[in-house]
Design a protein that fits this description.
About 40% of the residues lie in helices and about 15% in strands. It has 16 helices and 15 strands. The strands form three sheets. The protein has an eight-stranded mixed beta sheet, sandwiched between helices. α14 runs parallel beside α16.
Length: about 500
């Protein structure tokens, strides 16, 4: 039986593409099999002949054939060649990811299948523009610590230590609140550095800060529940709340943080209040003590909760560290949330919640169902990293680096960028807010800056409602000193070209 002519016109291989050539060939052949262009029993060309036709190495064809054979799409027998299998795996297991059949001429295409209401809400959530790519540092990109100074060799040794013996816990299922040693280390650190009052049993380790947000919102919010949220505020929190169907009530932020007094007098009591009390995102303000106490008292009276996102409080460069809201709470209203991504490196994907004692077991059960549990070997390595003092030493080193870079950025705002920008109040963190003159179009200016290679985000981008002071959210932690200075000159040229009116 002669070989079946292959649809070479549809086998488009791109040597410069992101996928390896064998994977491109695999995808093309599989699609041809599933949509009927290659029928069951059809004999394929030999690997040598197809490699010649496609002008690729024979190993490329062999790898694709072997993968398709292993998955049941092809049958290969010595002396009989390679054929399309008579019984395809997708027809045994259901449609899976099979490409849809091509519509016949004159027939209408089927309507797009709808997402759930939650899925549609998540799809519509505003997302920040991409801030960075591997190997590319853009001036003022935010949300990224200095990864170059992380002790990677030490970390790799700790990780290897917990990845050698399959008899140990990291090789099994972790279905509780997190690695016991890490929960103890987090509880000790939070108590000593942030004034958090807790036991290790109250710590829930999650696969990053967004997983912690999602878990808290799932457990506390029903559709239609009122939530107070800072305005402007963190997009990740807003996305979790929108997807849960929360009734978000924006509360304006000033130099003392969320305006709790106005919210109490004008808004219905919230089921949940989301605050970044130590370093407001993105404006940088610290929630004042009177407002902290008022918010806690209001939650106690109304029976609501407070979600305190303490995302980068390790880095404060003036004044005394501000203790957590959770440490002031005596009624079990505050859920404390932290992350290691800003302190160590983003890919570690470990965050945590510290919940009131009566919520520890419900949250423990819920995290088993959501799958928000990070790798146990990473948790164990991190427990050693903290317990052996490496975490504290790293934070102390980075405070010096970030304090220097913050000083450079403030100097550039006071000199190179002084005609157009003023630093907003704030004494810590990995980034700061800078204000443009009233009436400036910060979204247009930020887009022009990104075109020039400078990454700033418009403050208006973080708002749920129109208004507010225009300006930029500007990072410095992960940006080298010289890039901060060069970026300021580039941004000044952009603002001058955009004809932003000076102060």
């Amino acid at each position: 039986m002669p070989d079946t002519p292959l649809p070479l016109g549809t086998l488009s291989l791109d040597a410069a593409g992101d996928l390896p050539l064998y994977r491109q060939l695999y995808d093309g052949l599989r699609a041809a099999i599933l949509d009927g262009r290659l029928r069951p029993g059809a004999r394929l060309p030999s690997s040598r002949a197809l490699a010649t036709d496609l002008a690729v190495g024979r190993n490329t064809v062999v790898s694709a054939y072997e993968q398709l054979t292993a998955e049941g799409y092809l049958d290969s027998h010595i002396g009989a060649g390679t054929r399309v299998a008579n019984l395809l795996p997708d027809r045994l297991t259901g449609p899976g990811d099979r490409p849809p059949p091509r519509p016949q001429a004159g027939t209408a295409r089927p309507e797009k299948r709808p997402l759930s209401r939650r899925g549609e809400a998540m799809q519509g959530v505003r997302r920040a523009p991409a801030a960075y790519r591997r190997g590319v540092t853009r001036p003022f990109q935010h949300g990224l610590p200095d990864i170059e100074d992380f002790p990677a060799l030490l970390w790799s040794r700790l990780l290897a230590k917990h990845s050698r013996d399959p008899r140990h816990d990291p090789f099994g299922y972790e279905v509780d609140k997190g690695h016991e040693g890490l929960r103890q280390a987090i509880a000790d650190y939070a108590a000593a550095d942030r004034g958090v009052v807790c036991a290790p049993e109250q710590v829930i380790v999650t696969a990053g800060a967004q997983a912690a947000l999602d878990l808290a919102v799932r457990m506390l919010i029903d559709p239609g529940d009122t939530v107070w949220m800072e305005e402007p505020g963190y997009l990740g929190a807003r996305g979790a709340l929108i997807s849960a169907g929360a009734d978000i009530r924006p509360v304006e932020v000033d130099a003392n943080g969320m305006d709790v007094e106005t919210a109490m007098s004008t808004l219905p009591p919230p089921r949940l209040a989301y605050v970044t009390a130590s370093h407001q995102f993105p404006m940088g303000a610290t929630l004042s003590l009177p407002r902290r106490l008022a918010l806690i008292e209001h939650a106690a009276q109304s029976g609501g909760y407070i979600l305190e996102d303490d995302y980068d409080s390790e880095f404060r460069f003036a004044g005394r560290p501000i203790a957590s809201l959770q440490g002031l709470d005596r009624g079990g209203a505050v859920i404390y949330m932290g992350t290691l991504a800003k302190t160590l490196f983003p890919a570690i994907r470990i965050g945590y919640l510290i919940v009131p004692p009566d919520l520890a077991e419900p949250f423990s059960v819920a995290i088993r169902l959501t799958g928000h549990i990070p790798s146990v070997s990473v948790q164990a390595a991190l427990a050693d990293f903290i317990g052996e003092g490496h975490f504290g030493a790293h934070v102390r080193r980075m405070r010096q680096v970030y304090a220097r870079r913050r000083a450079i950025q403030l100097e550039e705002l006071d000199t190179t960028l002084a005609p157009w920008l003023r630093a907003a109040p704030g004494e810590g963190g990995l980034q700061l807010a800078a204000l443009l003159p009233p009436g400036a179009d910060d979204a247009r200016a930020a887009a022009a800056a990104r075109q020039a290679g400078v990454h700033v985000t418009a403050l208006s981008f973080y708002r749920l409602t129109p208004g507010g002071e225009p300006g930029f959210h500007m990072g410095y932690a992960g940006v080298p000193d010289d890039a901060l200075r060069k970026g300021a000159k580039t941004l000044a040229a952009v603002l001058e070209k955009e004809k932003i009116t000076g102060f």
